[in-house]
Queue: 3 jobs
Job 1
Amino acid sequence: MSVGTPDPNPSGSAPEPNSAWLSDLELADIRRRVPILYVEAVPVRLDGTGQVSRVGVLLRGDAWGKITRTLVSGRVLYGETVRHALFRHLEKDLGPMAFPQLPPSPVPFSVAEYFPIPGFSGYVDERQHAVALAYVVPVTGTCEPRQDALEITWMTPDEASSPEIHDEFEGGRGTLLRTALASVGVLGNP
Amino acid sequence: MSVGTPDPNPSGSAPEPNSAWLSDLELADIRRRVPILYVEAVPVRLDGTGQVSRVGVLLRGDAWGKITRTLVSGRVLYGETVRHALFRHLEKDLGPMAFPQLPPSPVPFSVAEYFPIPGFSGYVDERQHAVALAYVVPVTGTCEPRQDALEITWMTPDEASSPEIHDEFEGGRGTLLRTALASVGVLGNP
Amino acid sequence: MSVGTPDPNPSGSAPEPNSAWLSDLELADIRRRVPILYVEAVPVRLDGTGQVSRVGVLLRGDAWGKITRTLVSGRVLYGETVRHALFRHLEKDLGPMAFPQLPPSPVPFSVAEYFPIPGFSGYVDERQHAVALAYVVPVTGTCEPRQDALEITWMTPDEASSPEIHDEFEGGRGTLLRTALASVGVLGNP
Amino acid sequence: MSVGTPDPNPSGSAPEPNSAWLSDLELADIRRRVPILYVEAVPVRLDGTGQVSRVGVLLRGDAWGKITRTLVSGRVLYGETVRHALFRHLEKDLGPMAFPQLPPSPVPFSVAEYFPIPGFSGYVDERQHAVALAYVVPVTGTCEPRQDALEITWMTPDEASSPEIHDEFEGGRGTLLRTALASVGVLGNP
């Protein structure tokens, strides 16, 4: 049932730091009352001149066994900087040896607005109204997806721009991925 | 005592659309549990070539009679797009005849992170952890501040870059104003 | 045969202001020695909230009768600001009643590098090495293409994102158009 | 007498690759006829979360012994990508062990327009009309200035934002430095 922005605190796993006091019920209540702030990241590999050569896309299975592609994504906690949230979710989704190079600028390449009902924007998350600051993040180490991500696939920008890959994302994130590619000057042909 | 990000629903005034169900108490509770999403706007006048010629700064008095300078600012409501929130707060603070030209891009010039305790970032809001998407917004009409803003002052970019003006802002917003000027290429000398 | 960046001073038309001293021969010589600075613009219509609702694409015929799509584009002259060059080429290509709203920020949404030989970047201009600063520019008036442009077509962002439209551009500008759409958050499906 | 944008090919040193055919006289002639494309870079050190902790400023002596501060800067050659020009000038000014991390995005944080005569923009270069694409570039290695730069000074963002440092730059580059700091969210008080 759950799509789009992944739950930052899936039942069964340890609670996140600082959020032990926010139970699933309380979070569910807040999600119906204010927009929830998220960060999203598109992990990339750079060549020697800083140009993006590969894009990392996560493969994730949900509770019903459905496989979809997604990006690094998660909630910003109370008292946490955007930068720390970004780092925490990169480590959560890519493992501790990914060595992400967080961008010096806090300005995202795009702001993705997820609404529970389609039609307000290009992005949908049936659980909540979420607003995500999205970043392109170079990684230099080894990525080993953790939690509920099955694997990370490294594609060329052209592959990642294809209609086939677009259709494997949910909630509109295929568009967010291509917007990321455009922001770094490597959007492929349609 | 309240400084920084202005209260979106000041006691005594009519409640905002869509938020009647969120009482002051409930909002106060949520503010201690998740970061609250804000928009901020720096109103500007452009010359014929699109260059910023004047910057609008609000003068506001608080409940204790203290006068401070501030920017257009307010909360994004549940179910509301960032764009609509921006428009609503511009109208709230500048009046219905300001005719703001909202930017085509949803990417802010900066992301200002306000924490209740100083030292986490350059911005402080003792009431809450707020994350503000900040935009430069050209206005072409007549600005008549409403609500608790006393007046709007139009300054040259050089005047707005001065240490004196910087010190009249609270919560670090003087830096946000100069960051806005830098983003449109008109930051004055220090 | 000439494609890509349109000639700023087509033979048969009046020379541009300030450039009378730069003959076709001299310009041809300089074009083999330094990169030439260009501006490019994607004209757009905005809805009441500032969101892009339509994108303007030019239709142009070359000396051999071939019809291709293109963007507003032209050279920055010696002594001319980027802003004035942008305004001049918008007027040249859209007519004097287009009323373009030049962006307050001098930062382009992308930098397109055109090389005479394919493979260095996504963009090709067989006449020269040109570097173009590209902007999204809202227009509020009536557009009447002048010079060698046949007409301007207003498309929805989804139409402008299609493979068919992409293929009607030359020199890689279809990608630049979609990069523009991505920068304002309205890139359509591939 | 020469200030502002440093000569990419100072007499006495070896000519740059690809430009052997462009003599000093020819370059001087072209500089009076078209705007010359430059890149500029503000080298920075990042902390573990990607935030800028130090800014690198060059100290340079001219032929008359006058000492001024400046940024990494130089011309884009014919046939050279902006990215390669940026890398080449970073190596020229910071040495081969600086290990700059070129940004994945080709979009500069600002476009600085230098005119021979003051008043057209905030930037002046008496030798030419130059348009510079300016980038913030993290460096992870050891910087050893070469050529005519005397040394590199690493400052905190607050120090680099001060009026004293501003006044030690020529051609308006103190403003470009503070614009760089603003773009990465660390502009200090005026």
Job 2
Amino acid sequence: MQVIKYPRPEPWPELLRRPALESAALEQTVKDILANVRTNGDAALRQYALEFDRSVVDEFLVSDSEYLDAESLVPQDLKDAIAAAKANIEKFHAVEKVERRVIETTPGVFCWTKLLPIEKIGLYVPAGSAPLFSTVLMLVIPAKLAGCKEIVLCSPPSANGTIDPVTLYAAKLCGVTSIFKIGGAQAVGAMAFGTESVPSVYKIFGPGNQFVTEAKLQVLRYGIAIDMPAGPSELAVLADETCVPSFVAADLLSQAEHGSDSQVILVSTSQAVIDEVLTEVDRQLESLPRKVLAKTALENSKAIFVDSIETGINLLNEYAPEHLIIATAEAEVVAETVTNAGSVFIGNYSCESAGDYASGTNHTLPTNGAARAYSGVSVTSFMKTITYQRITEEGIRNLGPVIETMAAAEGLDAHKNAVSIRREFIG
Amino acid sequence: MQVIKYPRPEPWPELLRRPALESAALEQTVKDILANVRTNGDAALRQYALEFDRSVVDEFLVSDSEYLDAESLVPQDLKDAIAAAKANIEKFHAVEKVERRVIETTPGVFCWTKLLPIEKIGLYVPAGSAPLFSTVLMLVIPAKLAGCKEIVLCSPPSANGTIDPVTLYAAKLCGVTSIFKIGGAQAVGAMAFGTESVPSVYKIFGPGNQFVTEAKLQVLRYGIAIDMPAGPSELAVLADETCVPSFVAADLLSQAEHGSDSQVILVSTSQAVIDEVLTEVDRQLESLPRKVLAKTALENSKAIFVDSIETGINLLNEYAPEHLIIATAEAEVVAETVTNAGSVFIGNYSCESAGDYASGTNHTLPTNGAARAYSGVSVTSFMKTITYQRITEEGIRNLGPVIETMAAAEGLDAHKNAVSIRREFIG
């Protein structure tokens, strides 16, 4: 970890810059994959399964017997843990019924809003180095609470043509409509355009590698919505002398083990804390199975020594981390001053792992500074609003002249006429 | 208008297909513009002002004296109309204060959500064939209600280097922070990357031509959020024999006059209504100043004769129109069955013009079928949520084992260790 002392505000943007991930080659590769899936459907998917997953897939749809096999492979203690996490996630995501609020903006002009589920959604769950069944919980639970009718899930098959059993178990438990053994950019294309096997959906969610992320950005052009542009996972910790350095070290490592491109930042008002945390990081790192990944991630990471908690928060608000742990005195008061972050973990016992799995909050969060403008996934991510208006004769009498004046000033006579013809009719 | 009778469901997707607007050339042009703005800042903006707007711009920022000049140019009746519209839009968009709801998902695990304004936002307001000051109201009012700190607005200068006075007046009235005389893709680039004159923002809103839309899609790659991908404006009307054909015709024309690429669809259970509306359209068209634009739009438009209101609604839900007028018996009951639309106008007196200007609902709505997954602009479009969690010793004791089991099953030992080290510490 690089240690930086008392940075003045001027170099903050430079100091906090994430590695850029631009690539024209990636863009073209994904464009070709999407075009192929759009034109050739299942045949293209079969070709890529062989090429990228080294898997011969006859039937993309996971069958009932595959579910049953999967269920028998999941140990009971893991089933119990998943049930406990599911209960917490459901509790947190449950939406209170909001009464329809009709607003009479002008006498005779009634306006209101209705929140409705997005009918068809698609979820991508990566496999790769570790199966991420927790992502299934984090996406399917809010989708079901929102009332989505059709929930399609794609996950890459292993070389023997199967999907991780825990992923299948969690998907069935939470209520996915259908699961397909398809990975990568081609899975995003299949859900965006539809193929012989895969139905098309209206919005696509879920993490993935750079091909998946690029494909999500490209299908936006075809009217498909996406949850958010995802980047490598990030954790920032703000710590003072009240923190427990071994906890902070464990948290930094839990982020670093995600991948060599993970971003980890420690901000502290205490040089002693920084020293102790770094020593602890080295010590704990030795016993980790994913040591190599974590080590590379830590090389890109920074420990920043600041003169006050306030400076630390200003710097972190500019960085807008995905996860932010506040391990300081009066952590809850400090948390109130956060303006840009995906999720905030308050106090020494609030480790990021809790939010990743089971505390109840969603772990699909904005990365790469997107927390400045994006929210994490919630039930409303699976819904959209429609506005309504009902205008009476009285309403058009009262409001008509205002509309006519404005339409005329914009040079839109037909807009004006739509009001005038009604006013004349009423007489 | 093309008249189609009793279409069976199979050809609906074909029948309802919008014209595709793909262009590799457009994509490359915009890519070059954005790269130039990113590298050369104000110099690039000056070059494009000359090239595209035929305008020599020394100072992009609109000065106080320009505001004063603009104000004196806006007639009092228009000022009054704008004030009335502003009051209605504020009433509809006002957000009720929601009490913080802390959820204890497991004893000792406290989770909650906070809604915060996006600090810096950018608005694009096109000029072109008609000045669209109503867009200023529809974007700035919710941004102010959300609490955005910095509201930057860009609008293209005319050849004499000025901006439409009503746009300036409305912007000042509603509380824009700063206005810049910049148009097109280069304006989007300026707000995304920042230049010597223009501050960078976190989210960009507003309509525009295909260059602006393409630029908004491209800046997504740089972590900038956008309101939605915008396309040509659309109106669908569902009418039965209780409608007033001259009203329906006026509404269809008000949409058609937006531009030759506007989409207009009439769905009716009555052949007589279709005939009368089409006759009225021809009659009213003659007196419209924007007759040529409207005529071209109508050529791409369709009148569809269906066997029942239910079939009509099914078809329209699949089309997902930006605006939907329901001019039928029991219009409010029919409106309850709408699942995909931007905004719904109920009954004979609810013309689209009302929502465009002054009823209070927002006129920035999803087009091109995006209403299946996107919402129109609201105060929450200018905000993002942060989730929080505070876990006590008791909380980690209760929930710790669940997290450990799940982390171990995902092969993420450092995630597990972040909990284990805390459980051991508590003893």
Job 3
Amino acid sequence: MRLSPDQAQKIAEDLSLRLERSKTPVPIGVSNRHLHLTQEHWDALFGKGSQPKKYRPTRQPGYYAAEQAVDVEGPKGKIVNVRVVAPHRTKTQVEVSRTDALALGLNPPVRGSGTLTGAAPIKITGPKGSVDVPDALIIAQRHVHFSPAEAAAMKVKDGEFLRVRAGVGGPRETVFEGALARVSDKFALEFHIDTDEANAAWVKNGDLAYIV
Amino acid sequence: MRLSPDQAQKIAEDLSLRLERSKTPVPIGVSNRHLHLTQEHWDALFGKGSQPKKYRPTRQPGYYAAEQAVDVEGPKGKIVNVRVVAPHRTKTQVEVSRTDALALGLNPPVRGSGTLTGAAPIKITGPKGSVDVPDALIIAQRHVHFSPAEAAAMKVKDGEFLRVRAGVGGPRETVFEGALARVSDKFALEFHIDTDEANAAWVKNGDLAYIV
């Protein structure tokens, strides 16, 4: 096979872009199971007038894990103590690992945050009551957060799919394909995976990954 | 950069070998938590004179999952109903996922089967008694089983580390680095991963992977 000058140029540019991007280490954020609530569901679970209390900030500006937690339940099991992330949203969204989903007896789809098409039904119980939400349970799609400046520096566009290498030097080095790029001035550089993905690659919160 | 003819030749040969290998689909075997027992530990847990009863064969010739199961326990938790794989071995070996290990409150290393250096301690309880084994708990190293003929056809040597692509076409395509090649006339072609790895790549038992 003989490449045309145009083909050769395109390959060279792609390799050069990948090489350039891979020089910026991306901190890994491991998402444990958690949920976002609407005001209405919060009121039903914790009581009207009550407020989420800050437990600790997340790396993404403006969000925080609350002290409050709920139980979630499916046909085969229950998981207790699932933490609320605040502030509230316009749709209730429960994010679990596939390991969790199998324990609950549910088969939620992999979805980007905020995309609840085909999400599985889930029962949520708080100290003041329960709600049955028909379309709230998802397994989070692996994704990389960028501020606009970070995205520009790495020539990444919002919605692009990236390949991310993690666990380099450890016993389970892994390349994650199809990591969704999400660019917003509310975001900071971070590669988000769930606990199954983190355990598969033998990485933990704050370890470094590389876009390759 | 200009390659020497020798360097170019080497790269061409490596690419050609990878291309050739990737043409053979490798069935995925997802290992759920399980254990192998010594005769002595079996006797302590199930009673002297009792025998493992075949529940179903594994894909690897000669081994079978037994009907019998045990509970395993660490400082933070207990997992019930962990299945025994027979026939017995010369060392007791308990294989769990990292998700399981964290639930037990233990920090076992990633190890190839039969290599128990640094393995974590674990308490095992059966219907007739309990044993505390100081060095039995591991997290299995991803590996590929080959018969000698399969290894020869794919030019793979025992002990070699392979790169395996899984979940192609699914929502979580993943490339597993450092998969240990294990060649034996007791083996059949299969890529073994644990439940964390299977969930991370969104694959299940019998799905196909590719050595790339």
